[in-house]
Specification:
Length: 609
Amino acid sequence: MLRSSFTVLFICFSLFTTLVNAQVNAIQNIQGRKIQSLNGKWNYIVDPYENGYYDYRHEPFDQSKSGTGGYFDDRVQKDKTELIEYNFDLSPQMNVPGDWNSQSAQLSLYEGNVWLRRKFDARPEKGKKYYVYFAAVNYEANVYLNGKKIGTHKGGFTPFQFDVTSRLKTGENTLILKVDNTRKPDEIPTVNTDWWNYGGITRDVYLAEFPDHFISDYKLQLVKGNNNLLSFSMKLADATAGQDITLSIPELKLEKKYKTDAEGKINDEFTWNNLALWSPESPKLYGVNIKSDKEDINDKIGFRTIQVKGDSILLNGKNTFLRGVSIHDENPLLAGRLRSEGDMRMMLQWAKDMNCNYVRLAHYPHNEEMIRLADEMGLMVWAEVPVYWTISWTNPSTYANAKQQLTDLIVRDKNRASVVIWSIGNETPLSDARLSFMKNLAETARTLDDSRLVAAALEVHRDGNTMILNDPLGEVIDLVSFNEYAGWYWGGTPAELVKYSFDIKYNKPVVISEFGGDALGGFHGDENTRWSEEYQEALYKNQFSMLSKISALRGVTPWILADFRSPRRQHPVYQNFWNRKGLISETGKKKKAFFVVKDFYDQMQTKYK
Ligand code: GCB
């Protein structure tokens, strides 16, 4: 008897946790859906001891018998005898989207828990489905609607949503999040990085309305290596057979009619001959429409192929050099995450000013809007997940988390022509455990999307004046992509760089994913004076001479477009919590090295015409 009630209890608990955590991959093209923005001013409470989450015996309130007692109750004092030790109404407000570190001096270095609350009105209609959608929350979110938990999510840069159909009220609703950006060893990323750990609801929040059997996911892209063969797949949120679906591109007078299969899916490949292909020189996007009897979704999609042949990278079949730069998701002028189209445009325009045709969006998924802008502005993209440095390679839940983040990135951006490379990590130290972790990620990427390249930023090892690239992961990925900091962390003065050569084990296109050195904008000296613009300028000139010895060199993404904040960078004069490797300073001024890169790119553009 006792045993069976335990079993029942266990089943109930499992059911509860599954319901609470039920999370499918994020819905494709959220901007193209019926959405209500929940951005704006949110009230917040800083909660370093998680007082609003645990009782004094450290039991979570939301798992207690009553399921109440936490800040998610959003209580206010009803009479003067009542004891309530928090009050959202009287608490300060911050902007969402927005990291908390750049919105309050008190929170600049804060890592921990903050509660955020937004009230909103809704008019739910019968027969419709409703989701709250978060484009990104860093790092762990516990989400409550009208006092009840609707889900939890980990991972600071990818979108997620929860079904709130049964919880949404007509009239006023209260959405509350506990956001925790504490760094932890088993998470992705781990405790050790070189960027600011911006916490909060850093990207858009929406309430989205859907009909029954809505189109949750779709992909329309060219098949690898074939400039005329389109592949179209589509999936309904539930397995409904026989639904009519029309795919059309009015500009091409292309119209295709389908019926969903038993799983609610469509998979098709068809030839189309007069496509104007997407490229940085001509970033052509087509208006694409996908219609069911209940939905009408518009998107803008470009078509191009990307592949590797021997040591060449072929874009639409044409030999290409990736004239790139690395970028963090941070506005140096405001010292916070990029949060508007203007912020993103500024960064990508700076890259274009340097004559880039390519950007490395390091070290984690950037905003979907950033990728859409790259589509529109004509920049190829290396998109990455934060599998960075020392990950817990043997922990299965760490792997599951990395895989989920990679999946969410690919699902979100697989229709963007600009994305040509999925990067599965950066500078991960050699070991067997790491190799199998990374191989599995590479396989995941290829299974989800076989139309792009898979890469990772590897490391070189030195033997005398030779830089050796023999990381076994090089066998698995499509590029020989690696970081090297000759002339900064090792290797003497910039003038000495020319003595180094490379020993690269793999016959694949070489793409240098990072190199560079720091310069404090406006600080001048001779070319041997560390931190001066002249040192950085000489380092870049000599790097380009050194790298030109690699016959298979097919691209570079110097580190980095703009100075960025990092708690690792502590020199009080030159750094002050800023990594100064930017080609553009914290005040937006182009440093001397910027023009060295531009010159090199002008030459490469002519060479690869
Ligand atoms: C690296 C890392 C990058 C750092 C950079 C540096 O190798 O990949 O995240 O910021 O070096 O400045 O040291």
